[in-house]
Structures are given as C-alpha cells and as structure tokens.
C-alpha cells in the first residue's frame, strides 16, 4: 500500500488530526511524543514561523528513531516551492490553507497525499478535478456542520475534514461526524497555548485520549 493510501485509511480511522506549531524545537518534539503516547499516529506540524523547517527536521529524526508508525505532515503550505522544501525534509503529507495548484503538482510528483483547504463548492469541485481525495473545510467554525450536510451528497468520492474552531466537546464533535466528515482537525482547542507555554504534556495526553474516546463512542 502506498503512503498516500495508508494515510487515506489512517486519518479517518484516527478520526482526529492534531495540528500545532511552537517556535521552540524541544517543545515541538515533546508535544509530538505526547501525542504519540496518547495513541496518535498522524500529526500536522504547521509552517507558521521561521523555526518551522528546523523544528520539523528535528521532529522527523525523532519519528524515525523512536515513534514507529507515526506519519508527520506539514501544514500551512502555500506554494509548490515550500511544499518541495518540506518534502525534502521528510514530510509524509501536505496540507494547505487554500487550494494551491503548484502544491498539488509537487505532491503528485512524489505520490504524496495533499489536502487543500476549501470554503466553497466551486473550490471543492476544482480540488476534486485536480485529484484531491481529502478536503480540509476551512475555517470549520465559520462553515459549520450544516454546510457539510448540505454539500456531502454532491461529493460522494471525497473525504472531508473540518479544521479551525473544532471544540474538544462531545456535542461539537458529534455534530461534525453526523454531518459526514471523516475526521476533525484540532489545533489550539487541543494543543493549547497553556499546554505549550507551561509544558503540560500529561494534560495533553489526557485531553487527546479524551478526544479519541469521544470519537470512538460516536462510532459504536
């Protein structure tokens, strides 16, 4: 099975995609270890600061040496050149805040999963035409589960994942899954500023396990 196929299976099975950025290398690595120990096997590190590339390289080394079965993706990729830079650094998949054709081209060249951010049916149609298999509904809190419910039948062959404002709350998560998403992206509501600044790794492990349990309960 290709890496792309594995991720298209793993992310929906996991049901949640944690995402974060921290300018400190050690903190970035420890957050990754904490998510792994909670049961996470796919993480999105976001390209949101000057330190992102060096931190990502350090995280890649830790994944390869310690975290068997972990897939490390890179998010906030806005052009093909940046996609290539992170692929060279070992990115397993690429996530964009919008629909970027140059990223699709680079990812396809390497047979890697790329997930475009979309907000309208027109963008989703274009993403599908470009070969996207999974779409990030962004920003999720603006669109809401009602949007997902309304468009789901138009795109029976696509997987959808809202990102932005998804709450660590059973009612919120349930609303999204009932609307037809395959997973939810969770950033600051899971890997919070408080957790990062005060290195509350045990708290992160607990809240991640809670999120996974909520998703599991919705599927039983």
TrEMBL record:
Domain of life (superkingdom): Bacteria
Keywords for this protein: Carbohydrate metabolism, Lyase
Pfam families: Aldolase
Annotated pathway: Carbohydrate acid metabolism
UniProt cross-references to InterPro entries, sorted A to Z: Aldlse_KDPG_KHG (IPR000887), Aldolase_TIM (IPR013785)
GO molecular function: lyase activity
Entry's family note: Belongs to the KHG/KDPG aldolase family.
SUBUNIT field: Homotrimer.
Name of the featured protein: 2-dehydro-3-deoxyphosphogluconate aldolase / (4S)-4-hydroxy-2-oxoglutarate aldolase
Classification of source organism: Bacteria, Pseudomonadati, Bacteroidota, Sphingobacteriia, Sphingobacteriales
């Amino acid at each position: 099975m290709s890496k792309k196929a594995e991720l298209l299976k793993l992310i929906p099975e996991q049901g949640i995609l944690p995402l974060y950025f921290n300018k400190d290398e050690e903190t970035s690595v420890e957050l990754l270890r904490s998510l792994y120990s909670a049961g996470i096997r796919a993480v999105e590190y976001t390209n949101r600061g000057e330190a992102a590339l060096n931190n990502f390289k350090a995280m890649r080394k830790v994944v390869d040496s310690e975290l068997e079965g972990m897939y490390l993706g890179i998010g906030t990729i806005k052009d093909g050149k940046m996609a290539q830079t992170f692929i060279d650094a070992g990115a397993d998949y690429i996530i964009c805040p919008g629909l970027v054709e140059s990223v699709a081209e680079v990812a396809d060249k390497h047979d890697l999963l790329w997930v475009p951010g979309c907000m309208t049916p027109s963008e989703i149609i274009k993403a599908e035409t470009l070969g996207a298999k999974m779409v990030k509904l962004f920003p999720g809190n603006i669109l809401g589960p009602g949007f997902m419910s309304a468009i789901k039948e138009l795109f029976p062959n696509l997987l959808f994942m809202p990102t932005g404002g998804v709450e660590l709350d059973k009612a919120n998560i349930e609303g999204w899954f009932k609307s037809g998403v395959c997973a939810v992206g969770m950033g600051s509501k899971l890997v919070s500023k408080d957790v990062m600044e005060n290195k509350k790794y045990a708290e992160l492990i607990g809240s991640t396990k809670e999120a996974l349990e909520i998703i599991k309960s919705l599927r039983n």
